[in-house]
Every structure is written in C-alpha cells, then in structure tokens.
Amino acid sequence: MTQATEAPTTGRAANRVRKRQEYIDTAIRIVLNGGLEALTMQALAREMGAAVGTAYTYFASKSALVAELQVLAIGRLTTTFNDAAPRWQAEMGRLDAKGKAEAGLTLLVEFAVRVPKALRDDFFLQQLLLTDGGRSIMAEDQATVLEAADSWMKIIDERLSEAVDAGVLDKANKAQRASKFAATLNGASLFNNLPEGTVKDLDGFTRSLMVDLLSAWGGDAKRLTRSAAKAAAAADKSKLAAPALA
After folding, report:
1. Whose CA, among 3, 39, 50, 75, lies 20 to 30 Å from 168?
2. 3-state secondary structure at position 74
3. Residue pLDDT, tens place only, 160-211
C-alpha cells in the first residue's frame, strides 16, 4: 500500500521539478532576447503555453523569478572560476609564495577578461541584472541574491588576504578592498557592451587597470604585469567551459 501511494507522488514531484526548470530556461531566453523588461509573468506563461496562474504556482512573482536567475548566474560564474583557476595556475609553472599570491589575483582578472567571450550568455545575463539597479527584485527577494554574491566576494577577499600575508600587498587601508576590486572589474567589463573597438585592446586595458589598482595597494607593478601575462598565456592553453544557459 505504501509503495503504491508513494510512486505517483514521487512522479508528480519529479515532473514539477522538470517543469520548473523549463520555466527557468524559458525566462532566461526571454531576458537574453528582449531584456528584463520583456520578462513578465504573462509573457512567461504565453511562451510556456500555460495559464498565468500556473506560472505563479512556480514563482510567487517576477521579483522572485529574477532573483533566482541572478543567483543561478552568479553560481555558474563562481563554479566556472573555481574549476578554471587551479588549471590555469598549474599552467603558470612553479611559483614562489609571492608568485602564488600574485597569481591568485591576476587569475581573477583574467577570468573577468575571458568571461564576456567564453560565457557570453552568462555574462550578458549578469550584466543586465547588475545594471538593473535592483528595480526588478523586491527587498524580500534580495537576501538570496546577496548570499550568492557573498560567495564570490569571499573568493576575492581570500585572495587579497593571501596577498597581504605573502607581502604582495601592504597591510594598511584594507577596508573594502574586495568591494573596490570587484567594482573596478565590473566597471571595466561594462565596456564589453559597447561597439567593438570603442576601447582599444579592452583585454589589455583591463589587465593594466587592475595592475594599477593593486600597485596602489603596495603591489609591485612589474611583477604583477608579468603575472598577468602568465595568467593570460595559461588561459589560452586551458579554455573556460560551461554548459549553455538554456
């Protein structure tokens, strides 16, 4: 009796999980094709061939849906970096303690340089969400997004701390360095949304910009420039890879 009643329930639950993923995939396609403004619960239901009320059984609001898309985008980028960084560092050859700490930072920069081309959909979706200014996500849905963003900020903070411990960066004025590092990278990344060639050698510009920032925090510009070049060469040998968003 127990098995007979549990099997349909399990089947319905599995079907609901699959259907929910279809809604997410469809929402991503809508955003990639038309921007966040194009994503409404009505448009989502129409694309799914479902009633609007059915869409609301999967997501309480557009805000909740957009929050989930942002969490997914941040998570995919974080996971991809965590996969790529060890491979890239291995390609950089033997490094002393300072070299490893410098690589920890220049690999973050190189990842930001590569993402717009290698993971175009992920990057585009994340940039849309970053430039939305929080208009599409209500306060009650922001906690999950902040938690996901915090996981990425922790990676940056850990690598900056390792650089301080290794003597690569100075110990003074450490407050908000991770936020400044991330903000500078994001600012440079926004140039990818402009017509190609607007910024000459955008990749080189981004690397140079980050070397300047790290030098202002006590880093050795020549060593950091060499590390950035090694990181770029390593990334050329071991490409970024992630499954398509939808």
Report:
1. 75
2. helix
3. 999 999 999 999 878 899 999 999 998 998 888 788 888 899 999 999 999 9
Q: Token pair 């607007």 is at which residue?
A: 198
Q: Which two tokens stand for residue 91?
A: 């390609």
223 class by beta-carbon count within 10 Å (0-12 exposed, 13-18 middle, 19+ buried) = middle
Tokens of 129: 């969400």
Query: In whole angstroms, what is the distance from residue 40 CA to residue 35 CA?
Result: 11
Helix (H, G, I), strand (E, B) or coil at 188: helix
Backbone dihedral region for residue 242 (phi beyond 0: left; psi -120 to 50: alpha; all else: beta): beta
CA–CA distance, 158 with 150 (Å, rounded to integer): 12
User: Domains of the chain (ranges plus CATH)?
Assistant: 1-59 (1.10.10.60), 61-237 (1.10.357.10)
As a whole number of angstroms, the distance between CA 127 and CA 31 comes to 11
CA 156 to chain centroid, in Å, comes to 12
Tokens standing for 51? 């009633």
Q: Is the pTM of this model over 0.70?
A: yes
